[in-house]
Amino acid sequence: xxxxxxxxxxxxxxxxxxxxxxxxxxxxxxxxxxxxxxxxxxxxxxxxxxxxxxxxxxxxxxxxxxxxxxxxxxxxxxxxxxxxxxxxxxxxxxxxxxxxxxxxxxxxxxxxxxxxxxxxxxxxxxxxxxxxxxxxxxxxxxxxxxxxxxxxxxxxxxxxxxxxxxxxxxxxxxxxxxxxxxxxxxxxxxxxxxxxxxxxxxxxxxxxxxxxxxxxxxxxxxxxxxxxxxxxxxxxxxxxxxxxxxxxxxxxxxxxxxxxxxxxxxxxxxxxxxxxxxxxxxxxxxxxxxxxxxxxxxxxxxxxxxxxxxxxxxxxxxxxxxxxxxxxxxxxxxxxxxxxxxxxxxxxxxxxxxxxxxxxxxxxxxxxxxxxxxxxxxxxxxxxxxxxxx
Length: 390
What we know:
The chain has helices spanning 3-9, 15-18, 36-47, 64-77, 88-97, 111-119, 134-137, 160-167, 180-183, 217-230, 236-246, 249-268, 308-317, 347-352, 369-381, and strands at residues 81-85, 102-106, 126-129, 142-148, 172-175, 193-197, 211-215, 275-277, 300-304, 322-323, 333-335, 359-363. The protein is an alpha/beta fold. It has two domains: 3-26 and 63-246, Aspartate Aminotransferase, domain 2; 250-381, Aspartate Aminotransferase, domain 1 (Alpha-Beta Complex), CATH 3.90.1150.10. The chain has a seven-stranded mixed sheet, sandwiched between helices. Strands 8-9-12-11-10 form a five-stranded mixed sheet. Helix 1 (3-9) packs antiparallel against helix 4, helix 4 packs parallel to helix 11 (236-246) and helix 13 (308-317) packs across helix 15 (369-381). The radius of gyration is 21 Å and the shape is globular.
């Protein structure tokens, strides 16, 4: 089935047998065990990271509502399985813990992911590599290569197939939060893991936090084991909201992308804007990854003004866009990465990666594009009063 059909139907095969049209929310923390031997067999299976043998036993081990979301997301990513967690950071943490050894990572990454790796809190040694020099960073004990594309917050694109080729036998994990399965499926390029902060586009309404890793069934087992022993489970209500959010994913992503194309062009011509980073603009995708690896440039835009004070002035002046962290919601969000999501990263590292004091990140929503432009232009005109937008 095509993706828009999968979004609506995946993970809902059992609903007819249950006699319901909408997915039920199973809030049970424990489940009656009518057959002790079968209960033991189910518990043993889940301890191995497998699915329960009939009885979920306890909600920390398995939840049917969450499992339906996992089934749906796996279908959208073309994976055998998916494992959902309480947040995107819980998902990234579990992924790293499931691969003991040295990690190679490419910057820029989401600030939380960068901080997790840089602090060494998980006991992993990390080598930061450029996209074209991954092979040089691989060691005999390297267990994972971590990539985010489009990158957060600069929108840099990474050729996943090239990274996979350089990594050789080392698994590659791709954070696909910005693109979503609507615009990119990294497993088609050879990635072994696909990670999402489900809080963002998958949920899409700013009312749920979650994370998910799509992978093979074999790779899912250690992830489930980590979730069981650490308690990083996704709440059933969150699983329900994320599963419901998938039903409109394409509609939201494509509508927001259409507006982002317009706003990126207009921002590029405003006198207060020094530069715009958007894969849909001419010259910003020299490898042609939009069209080969991706099916569109997406709805995230980064643009740079002269200074930190100018960036803050814009955030304080918008009225329709919401000045806040996060992204991927139906409403437009704007934030200043260097002082918010990427504040935990070394300033010199930020500057080298393009996260400058004047950089703003715009997550375009599904509002009318002319209303969005009027809001942005009004804020931008305040720091360039002598010139009108072209």
